[in-house]
């Protein structure tokens, strides 16, 4: 699984900065969470789940990555 984070240059468009975003890597997919409770998940079946939050324009100033996978993955 690859995670790409794109940061837009200043002035590209207006975004609201938040303190941090937490990314959880799990055996069954990935989930993202902001401190205000806004979160989303992406499963290995390709389904995206988005949960209620306050803003769709939040942009993190810090990203925390938690790798909670238990499976031993091999990369080819």
Radius of gyration: 14 Å
Beta-strand percentage range: 35-45%
The N- and C-terminal alpha carbons lie at a distance of 12 Å
Strand order, main sheet: write it out: 5-4-3-2-7
Count of helices? Answer: 0
- The secondary-structure element order is EEEEEEE
Number of strands: 7
How would you classify the helix and strand content by structural class?
mainly beta
Low confidence ranges: 1-12
Q: What is the mean pLDDT? A: 64
Helix content: under 10%
The major sheet is characterized as: 5 strands, mixed
Q: What characteristic shape results from the CA principal axes?
A: flat
In short:
This is Fur-regulated protein. This protein is mostly beta strands and 76 residues long.
What does this structure look like?
This protein has 76 residues and is mainly beta. The chain has a domain at 16-67. It is built from no helices and seven strands. A five-stranded mixed β-sheet has the order 5-4-3-2-7, with no helix packed on it. Strands 1-6 form a two-stranded parallel ribbon. Strand 2 and strand 3 (29-33) form a beta hairpin. The protein is flat, with a radius of gyration of 14 Å. The N and C termini lie close together (12 Å). Mean pLDDT is 64; it is low at 1-12. This is Fur-regulated protein.
Index terms:
disordered N terminus; mainly beta; 5-stranded mixed sheet; two-stranded parallel ribbon; 7 strands; 76 residues; single chain
How are the SSEs ordered, and which strands pair?
Elements: E1 16-18, E2 21-26, E3 29-33, E4 39-43, E5 48-50, E6 58-60, E7 63-67
Parallel strand pairs: 1-6, 2-7
Antiparallel strand pairs: 2-3, 3-4, 4-5
């Amino acid at each position: 699984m690859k995670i790409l984070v794109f940061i837009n240059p200043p002035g590209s468009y207006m975004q609201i900065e938040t303190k941090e975003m937490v990314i959880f890597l799990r055996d069954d997919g990935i989930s993202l969470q902001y401190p205000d409770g806004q979160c989303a998940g992406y499963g290995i079946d390709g389904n995206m789940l988005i949960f209620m939050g306050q803003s769709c324009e939040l942009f993190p100033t810090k990203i925390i990555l938690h790798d909670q996978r238990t499976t031993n993955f091999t990369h080819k």
